[in-house]
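One such shown below:
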Amino acid sequence: MAEQNWAGNVDYLARRVRAPVTIDELQHIVAESSARGRRIHALGSRHSFNRVADTDGDLISTADLNRIVDIDHSASTVRVQGGIRYAELSSALQAEGLALANLPSLPHITVAGAVSTGTHGSGIDNPSLSASVVAIELVTANGELVRMSAADDDNTLSGAVVGLGALGVVATLTLTVEPAFEVEQTLWRSLPIDEAADHLDEIMSVAYSVSLFTNWTSGEFHQVWVKRRTDTDLPGVPSADDALAKRFGLRRAETALHMVPGVSPDACTEQLGRRGPWHERLPHFRPEFTPSVGAELQSEYFVDRSDGPDALRAVYGLADRLAPLLLATEVRTVAADGLWLSPASGRNTLALHFTWRLDQPRVMALLPHLELALAPFAARPHWGKLTAMPANEIRTTYTRFDDFVGLADRLDPTRLFRNDYLDDLLQ
């Protein structure tokens, strides 16, 4: 049976999947493939919805490269193998009294996979997960282990972090950490979309992390998820989101909710304002449950936050066409970073995420209309999700794209790690 991604919409072209258990074994596999001229590519948690992680050669599963190598309290860093998942890493850090500044909505995904595609959490002041990387080790095309660090003079780390698997296989990552903290998660209901567009920055700034959810059927965001840090945000009542709720007539959710109406909230993290550890509140989903609803597709687009209100109104104009194919849209913010291929590179960002029903032909037919509506805002699609945007248009939205192509050519001159997706993108 063909190997598939998590959603089942991609049948990998790979001849086989190899699963090294040590870095030495990984280096041997890469060197062997290079000698035979057989393409390879890294495979994480299979949560990409396109062929960015595919190959017609061998896939290298990083599932067993999942150890914590070192926790350095004095430097406030943790060094991990690339295949570790955020759920396991977070639990281990919590036990040490430490935390990551932010987490993805799904703790099931691998650190290397998330970082390599510019995946993010939420928060006006929170950059993407990739921005926490201060050093990376890659197994490059000749099987050598190459280390890049924030301390290097050539700034190649900024090009290598969001690497799309084009530079090599991520062996280890060193991430910044901070003291553990607690979070209260409260859900509010019924925020009019027009009001959200008119007061977007104000709304998204009420707490450490804010997410807006809509299915475009009612003219409102049916849920507002507010995650408040108890050590930095103002805890208790009155709070910024309480005041906002009063102003816009929002209703506090009195029972736990799933962001997709009608779906059980059992898989979601604790709500109702109950204080708890950071790693049990910042994600939307618990690691012990199947993520989201399973049978779904995803797209996501990133625009400059200053264009956010107009971009939101432009998408709202397509509500009648979006709603029949949609499970939920989530709106989040991401702080700017300096990583060459990060979707938030060089600009504070509004992220518009679409979770679609599992109907790829109809979704792909709709995406050009959605992308046309977002074109005036130089929207960048998520590297691991569905888009109809031509590669040449994507390239123009990144000022350092040519530098990245040069880095890829230097680290992988024989294009060992390329695939059809990357050949089209990096031509």
About this structure: The mean pLDDT is 94. The two ends are 32 Å apart (CA to CA). Residues 360-374 form the longest helix (15 residues). Residues 326 and 379 are 20 Å apart (CA to CA).
